[in-house]
Amino acid sequence: VYFMTDGAPMPEIALPIDGPAALGANAVSEWRLSGVRWVSQRPCHVLTHPYSIDREDLTMAIWIDQDTNLLRGWAVQRKGADVDDPPIVSCEYDSIELNAPIAEDQFAVGRDRSRAIARANVRAE
User: Fold this and answer.
1) What's the Cα-to-Cα distance from 70 to each of 1, 4, 35, 95, 116, rounded to whole Å?
2) What is the tally of structural domains in the chain?
3) Residue 28 has what pLDDT?
């Protein structure tokens, strides 16, 4: 989400760690509380932030669960778009699990596996 906001600070990540300093030296932020919305059958706060990509004015919206303060989703829309207009891109998180156990080999690529991947890539070329 950080890259989707073109480097704009994400308040739900920075606020618990940095407190008011997360909003900038003078505690002024372009993030705005813009209302409420249901996401994945959960009540959420809607926070919006304006930004531009290639001179196109856009709005980034994030949905924060009102009870757990977890990120439930985000969307990018053209600035001034109607509420009913579909977003350019969006993502909703239906199932969030914190502190879930992860198998030790979940992200490990052993020596034999990396050789097999390399051989497959050579064959594909």
Assistant:
1) 14, 18, 16, 11, 39
2) 1
3) 57
Range of the domain at 18: 11-124
Domain-located, residue 4: no
> Tell me, what's the pLDDT at 79?
87
Residue 2 lies in a domain: no
SS3 116: helix
- Tell me if 30 is assigned to some domain: yes
Q: Which of 39, 41, 18, 37 is nearest to 29 (CA)?
A: 18
CA distances from residue 57 to 37, 47, 78, 80, 94 in whole angstroms, order as listed: 23, 17, 6, 9, 29
> When comparing pLDDT for 26 and 104, which is higher?
104
Compute how many other C-beta atoms are within 10 angstroms of the C-beta atom of residue 63: 26
95 falls within a domain: yes
Measured distance CA(23)–CA(14) in Å, rounded = 8
Instruction: Kindly report which listed range (49-53, 87-91, 93-97, 120-124) carries the lowest average pLDDT score.
Output: 120-124
